[in-house]
Amino acid sequence: MRALALLLLASVAALASADRLIAAPSGRKVTQGTLKFDAVWEGDGEKCLQSYLAYGLTPSLELALGGEYVDQRNALPTLDLVWTITDPVVNYVPGLAIGVQDAFDNTFLGRRLYFAVSYDVGMTGRYNGDTPLQLTLGVGTGGHNGAFVGVSIPWTSQFRLLAEHDATRITAGAEIRPSEGLWLRMLARDRRAVWGLGWSVRL
Question: Could you tell me the residue ranges of all domains in the chain?
């Protein structure tokens, strides 16, 4: 019976496609065969748009191509790679990942190497019982030099609160999922408004 429960939980975890919470990496990757787009826009002060397109190449390897556009400067291409050691299984096994963000060393934070651990904690509420709480701890070099932490707290399967410290700044806010594979984010970072949009599809 326990083996069956573990198998079902592993299947649920394999459907998750969140390689990072907001900006800080996590101990998970985009599922093999899944394409994910994510973008974050800071519109206050110096305007900044960061976006990436990620694909799960194998059960353990993810590749992401993206860019960063900062006010009055050209967009700069980025390359991210993630290798997962284990995938998270709710309440049992943490997700472990090593990776590099911005391998081209083009963005403001530069090239970042990291190791991250993500825990999925099963919820028992009436409205969030099918969506785990996600907690990530990690360490990195470069722009994420030092420790980083992030948490996603589901109120329902369509609404959750997000918060992270990526070793340089705190970002927090809310995420709404109006339909499967689509999410909208309203965040605050250093007293500035940040907006996010994401989409994923299994190919």
Answer: 2-194
